[in-house]
Structure formats: structure tokens, C-alpha cells
Design brief:
eight-stranded antiparallel β-sheet, 35% helix, transmembrane, Chondroitinase Ac, Chain A, domain 3, single chain
């Protein structure tokens, strides 16, 4: 078929694939969308060639999830409860019950690889950053292989009656002990919980979901340093103001004392000037100065002598 000669018609033919790309990219940024794509691939694989129980099969995923590695294993619910399971980094101890009661289930393991960064968008993990890939472990009802209803395709509820599920990150990370990472558990309802490691690069959980190792982000550490600086400056400023107030109090008291001493000296000087002090025996006593009145004649005539 010949291509349209008009340029704008050729542009219209090229637009649909260009418009579709952002949509695929947006889907790959939603963790729950990724879970559904991996789940559908797990169910589809058992319709083709993956039929054996307790055997892990690698799942083919679309190109938009090329960074994700996933495996699926089918178990009998009774066998999983009695013997537990080991799937790559995960160790499921005996004593795991599923609800509702079913005969068979499918367990899906994920390693999100470079797509793990999408979990940084969780609000509850602000102030932390991932230092490991996000690993996921999800349980599904194997009845979904025959019945595609939404109820059968959703995750099962699990009850860990004995030892918790162990997640060993040693295969996917190096030595992180100097960083002292925490275990982050991303639950299916969107909640995030943090806990300490039980051993080097190992975490424990009694729930299914996604797991990673995290450390406090540099921004959070800088914020703490800034807060520490503010506290130090506040303490120093408070101490300076206290010292300054103390000096002002001392200066005011000293000025008052000097004024009182000056007034006292002036008062004593005035009294000593008004009343002279003289000794009367062994006692000092103030005495007034003697002032004699000059005699004056009553008239200008002197008495005649006869």
C-alpha cells in the first residue's frame, strides 16, 4: 500500500504508537499493576507447560517489565502447611495456613530490579531510600487457573502460625552492615512498616507483600544536622543572653552602690560642716561653732564725764 502523499496524513498514522508509550510507562510505575501482570503471567504459564507441583518456573513478562524477574511455584495447601517452602530469597516455615480453605495454591516471587525505585513514592517511607531491590512474595488460589473471576484472582489471606517468613537479601546485595539498613515491608493495603534486621541482610515477616532494605536518606540526615545546628546556636545564644543580663544586673547594682556611697559621703560632709566634732573626755560629740555678736551702741552720744 502506498503511503499518503500529504505530510499531515502521514503524521496521523504515526501518532497512535507515540500516544500509547506514555500509557505503558505509567502502568509500569504502579506496583499493584505490576503485581497483576505478573499474576496473569503465572496463571497463563500453567495453561501451557508448567504443570508440576513444588517446581519453580521462570515467568515470561512483557517488555515494559523487562527489569523484573519472577518465578512461580504451585503447592498443595496441606504440604505447604506441613513442610514449608524455599523460593529463592524466601523461606516459608511449616505452619502456614491460607484462607479460604483450598487444596492448591500458587506462590509468586518477584524481584523488581531497577523498577524498585517506584516504591520510593510511598509516603510512609519518606526520609528513607532503598539500598536493595524490592522482593515480593504473594499467594494466590490455584482455582484461578480454571476460573478467571476477580475473587479467585486476588491474593489469599495467610496466617503464619509458627516461625515467620524469612527474607535473605544476601544474594541481591553486598555487605551493608556499615550502613545499618532497616527492613521495610510494603503491605498490600499500601501501609509500610520498618523493623530491624534479625541477622546480616535478613528480615522476618508474618505477612505477604514486598520487602526491601532501606537507610535514612541524605536529605533526612542533612535535616538532622541542620536541626542539631539550630539547637547548638539556640543554646549558645541563650547562654550569651544570660551572661549579658547578668552583667547588666551587676552594672546596675554597682551604679546604685556607688550612688548610695556618694550620697552618704555628701550627707556626712554636710553634717560635719554644720556640727563640729570635739572630744568631751573620751566621747566624740558634735559642737556648734561659737558666734559672738558684736556690741552696738543704742545712740550716737557717748556718756558725759562729770
Amino acid at each position: 500500500m502506498a503511503l499518503p502523499s500529504k505530510p499531515h496524513l502521514l503524521l496521523l498514522l504515526l501518532l497512535p504508537p507515540i500516544v500509547m508509550l506514555p500509557s505503558l510507562s505509567h502502568q509500569a510505575q504502579d506496583p499493584r499493576v505490576i503485581d497483576r501482570i505478573v499474576r496473569d503471567s503465572a496463571f497463563q504459564s500453567y495453561h501451557t507447560k508448567h504443570h508440576k507441583t513444588a517446581i519453580a518456573y521462570k515467568l515470561p513478562l512483557p517488555s515494559s517489565l523487562s527489569a523484573v524477574a519472577a518465578e512461580t511455584v504451585r503447592y498443595r495447601a496441606g504440604s505447604l502447611r506441613r513442610y514449608g517452602a524455599a523460593i529463592k530469597e524466601f523461606r516459608v516455615a511449616p505452619g502456614v495456613f491460607v484462607h479460604p480453605h483450598i487444596k492448591r495454591l500458587i506462590v509468586v516471587r518477584q524481584n523488581l530490579g531497577n523498577l524498585s525505585a517506584i516504591y520510593n513514592a510511598y509516603g510512609n517511607i519518606s526520609g528513607f531510600q532503598l539500598v536493595s531491590p524490592v522482593l515480593g512474595l504473594l499467594f494466590y488460589n490455584a482455582a484461578g487457573l480454571r476460573n478467571s473471576s476477580s475473587k479467585n484472582l486476588s491474593e489469599l489471606e495467610i496466617l503464619v502460625a509458627r516461625r515467620p517468613i524469612a527474607v535473605d537479601f544476601s544474594r541481591v546485595v553486598g555487605n551493608l552492615q556499615r550502613l545499618r539498613p532497616l527492613c521495610a515491608m510494603f503491605e498490600l493495603d499500601g501501609n509500610v512498616s520498618l523493623s530491624n534486621q534479625t541477622a546480616s541482610n535478613k528480615c522476618l515477616s508474618r505477612r505477604q507483600g514486598h520487602f526491601a532494605l532501606v537507610i535514612e536518606s541524605a536529605k533526612s540526615e542533612n535535616s538532622k544536622v541542620s536541626e542539631w545546628k539550630v539547637v547548638v546556636v539556640s543554646v549558645v545564644a541563650g547562654a550569651f543572653v544570660t551572661v549579658l543580663l547578668g552583667l547588666m544586673v551587676v552594672a546596675v547594682a554597682s551604679a546604685r552602690r556607688k550612688r548610695y556611697q556618694r550620697e552618704e559621703m555628701e550627707r556626712r560632709a554636710y553634717e560635719e560642716e554644720a556640727l563640729q566634732i570635739s572630744m568631751v573626755g573620751h566621747v566624740r560629740a558634735p559642737t556648734a561653732s561659737v558666734a559672738r555678736t558684736a556690741p552696738a551702741l543704742e545712740n550716737d552720744y557717748a556718756p558725759s564725764s562729770s
